[in-house]
Amino acid sequence: MKYNLIIADDHKMFLEGMLSMLEDQEQYHIMFTAKSGENIIKYLQINSSNDIDLIITDITMPDVDGIALNSFVKENHPDLKILVVSMHHDPGMINTLIKKDVDGYIPKNAEKRELLLAIQTILSGKKYFSSDIKEVYMNSIFHKKKDVLISLTKRERDVLKLIAQEHTTQEIADTLFLSKHTVESYRKNLISKLNVRNLAGLTKYAIKLGLID
Predict the structure, then answer these.
(1) Closest to 128 (Cα-Cα) out of 106, 113, 95
(2) What is the pTM of this model?
(3) CA 115 to CA 106: how far, in whole Å?
(4) Tens digits of per-residue pLDDT, 45-61?
(5) Is the dihedral of CA 131, 137, 143, 146 positive or negative?
(6) 130-171: per-residue pLDDT in tens?
């Protein structure tokens, strides 16, 4: 079976290197190459996306970057797969792409073996992220948790933990030797501080922060 690929990158040397890595792979046909995400969007507006199996794109490109391209594709052609190949290991970029349902992300210095593995994995319907990208992403999540915990006082953490354990306002007040009014104030402040809407949101956050199992 043949798969049709599109490659977008504004660096001629990288584009040529990518083409050379794929030229001996008979199952892949390069339908189109572009220097920016805008060229890809124009191509998709003129041609059917049904014939395209995968777009391989850089992040930093003129006009429309890889993040914007991924967003456009996922909103307008949800069945079309996207693999990001970039030198950027910025946690914010990785997080944005994961939230926008990118199918894979590998660094530009990845070996041919990993590039082919990423392509095969994505075309089989799974996602592929290199170990470097996964490590950056997980470290970012860990530090975010740490930052939130640091921003909460010990008393706020105590109240949050007891709320998540389904204790009533009175039980929390008795346990921490506080008035019911003070516990209510803590609860309202926590909802505001953690940007959640209700007690269920507080419970989810407590689990996410590792305050309860």
Answers:
(1) 106
(2) 0.67
(3) 8
(4) 998 888 999 999 999 99
(5) negative
(6) 988 888 777 776 666 666 666 888 899 899 999 999 999 999
